[in-house]
Amino acid sequence: MKTRRLGRSGLQVSTLALGTMNFGHPTEKREALQIIDAAIDGGINLLDCADVYADGKSERILGEALKKNGKRRQVFITSKVYWPTGSGPNDRGNARHRIIKACEGSLERLQTDWIDIYFLHRTDFNVPQEESLAALDLLVRQGKIRYTACSTHPAWRTVEALWISDKHHFPKFTCEQPPYNLLDRRAENDIIPMCRAYDMGIISWSPLAQGVLAGRYSDAAKLPKGSRGAQKTVYADRITPQGISVAAKLTDRAKRSGHTPARMAVAWVLHQRGITAAIIGPRKLAHLKDLLPAAELELTEEDLHHFDRLVPPGRHVSDHFNTAGWRTGFHSVSPATI
Questions:
Q1: Which residues are catalytically annotated?
Q2: 225 lies in which domain range?
Q3: Distance of CA 55 to CAs 24, 61, 85, 243, Å?
Q4: pLDDT tens track for 123-157
Q5: How many domains does the chain have?
Q6: CA 263 – CA 156 distance, rounded (Å)
Q7: CB 18 within 8 A of CB 62
Q8: Is residue 335 in some structural domain?
Q9: What is the pTM of this model?
């Protein structure tokens, strides 16, 4: 497995990160434990989690897996804070109280003394960034987290956070975690150039566009039972006829090249400038085994030009920023888990 430097941190992380969102639901614990062990054996050293995934079950399963296999010190664990984890008014967002409480809860579920990279899952426009960053600084000084990061933040907001960190000597964000795939390339317009300018790593989520680029959908109006799109409206809204059409053309090219469409879609992300790693979130062990070779897959210039014609740079045919109201000018969005 290839590794790349994660922003200014100096950490060498695998180009594939294991996403754990499915662990606990729909992936049962037994298979999730197998997936974690196989991912580490396959060279993945970056395990991505969050407090809201499967209502905390994902963190518990990940913690149990690393306790059993004794490989905690061989890997980097991430977790996140922002989305609601309770019904109270202080069980959400990025206030100091919330961040500290959420981190301590994650540490307990993960059965670890520290989280390697702790993300603000979304930006909180209701809380001054000084407060959020001061809370992260405290957690770093306490040894509970080692690096700070942000996910799906607007570029201007991240730059403001870097300026505040400079001013107050807080730890700077090491990386950003945006949605990025062939169907939604808008991160190329602002987030990716910003990260490259400020030496921040980029760990992209949803490189398979929620399974669309793996060929799992044939009709945006008839979603398969049990699929991610059938679970929630926020997921269904990301599945479009245009996206399915692009996926069909990617599948044709993948077959001619002797690859699976999922493998080629992930490889495409890893070929883009500024990308450190792509998060893969297998529901089954077979999905992981199919995706592991994507880290070594070399696409040709002809492949890359072909994909640029399908969806030009900076454009989109599917909205994977639909849990980030700032992209459309609305700062208040409904709770979601990714």
A1: 53
A2: 3-327
A3: 9, 12, 7, 30
A4: 999 999 999 999 999 999 999 999 999 999 999 99
A5: 1
A6: 33
A7: no
A8: no
A9: 0.95
